[in-house]
Design brief:
Structural class: mainly beta
Helix content: 10-25%
CATH architecture of the largest domain: Beta Barrel
Number of domains: 2
Distance between the termini: 83 Å
Order of helices and strands: HEEEEHEEEEEEEEH
Strand content: over 45%
Number of strands: 12
CATH class of the largest domain: Mainly Beta
Radius of gyration: 24 Å
Strand order of the largest sheet: 1-2-3-4-5-6-7-8-9-10-11-12
CATH topology of the largest domain: Porin
């Protein structure tokens, strides 16, 4: 019952803030960490790639090689803060049991889920409180303590286990997932992302995981690097992983990436690489301002024009 309440809490939490659309693609690749921000209303985005991994289990005396494809589809709708997301990873694993000299091939989804993410807090929602300093470049680019205040989003979704999945044979057809994602813009060129997720809720082997990801843009902002640490804990298995990689922005809607990573334990030891791309179709339109706000601005403009005319008339009369 607690699991269901947790899921419903994330799904129906009140909508609290206004989101932040960006003119440049907001991709979760090349890392695993998920951004707090949605892609933006009426934006359709695909993030896809390939992976290769080698595993060697020192206790079970098994070795394996894994090749697979990844796909994430993201769609912003209804609100700037709301995002619908599908994530799928389909892999083929060739595993050798060294003690018996037996080879086996396993093929299926290692990840197959869909969910909603909603931005509940954005420290940059008030432009008046985040105006740039027009007199100091350093003031605008240095680290400040207030930059640690993160944007926060909540995610609620479901994981689907279709057929006889050899990677999750004990799981039912559907289980649930909840996550908290935060994002802090430390400087204009560096971002810190943290995720805490509780996955495969309602199965016999729920998974608690976290990810901490730091991204830094180069002097040429089209290039960026990242480092990431991920931890996974469940009764089925646990893992500690490190990743690093690079991404290149070809244009505001298209990004490519490459990354490498490994585990820091040998049950099993894992070494892997990923490469892929992200592309978006941007149908976003700025929301029209309320009529009363437009009317107020128009009135201020008219009054300003009248004052200027009066001043000119006085000069002419003089």
């Amino acid at each position: 019952m607690v699991h269901y309440r947790f899921f419903l809490l994330l799904l129906f939490l009140p909508f609290l803030t206004k989101g932040q659309y960006t003119d440049v693609i907001n991709s979760n690749r090349p890392g695993i960490g998920v951004s707090a921000y949605a892609v933006g209303k009426n934006v359709v985005q695909a993030e896809t790639g390939f992976l290769y991994e080698m595993r060697d289990h020192s206790v079970l005396n098994t070795s394996s090689s894994i090749f697979g494809g990844e796909l994430a589809l993201r769609y912003g709708f209804l609100f700037e803060e709301l995002e619908l997301k599908y994530e799928g990873t389909y892999i083929s694993e060739n595993i050798t049991f060294d003690n018996f000299g037996v080879d086996e091939r396993r093929t299926d989804f290692s990840r197959n889920r869909i969910g909603l993410k909603y931005l509940v807090f954005d420290p940059f929602k008030n432009p008046e409180a985040n105006k740039p300093n027009l007199y100091s470049w350093r003031a605008n680019n240095k680290f400040q303590l207030k930059n640690l205040i993160p944007a926060v989003s909540l995610y609620a979704g479901a994981t689907f286990n279709l057929g006889d999945n050899p990677f999750y044979p004990e799981d039912g057809t559907i289980s649930y997932r909840g996550m908290i994602a935060t994002q802090s813009r430390l400087t204009p060129k560096s971002v810190l992302i943290t995720n805490v997720a509780y996955d495969r809720i309602t199965t016999d082997f729920p998974e608690l995981s976290y990810a901490i990801s730091y991204t830094r843009a180069f002097r040429n902002p089209k290039w960026s690097i990242f480092v990431e640490h991920q931890g996974i804990e469940s009764d089925r298995f646990s893992d500690l992983l490190l990743r690093t990689g690079i991404a290149h922005l070809f244009n505001p809607n298209f990004q490519v990436d490459f990354s490498l990573g490994a585990s820091i334990k040998d049950t099993p030891f894992r070494a892997f690489g990923r490469t892929g791309l992200s592309y978006r179709l941007d149908f976003h339109k700025d929301e029209l301002k309320p009529l009363n706000e437009q009317g107020a601005k128009a009135k201020i403009k008219r009054n300003s024009t009248k004052k200027k005319k009066k001043r000119r008339k006085k000069k002419l009369d003089f």
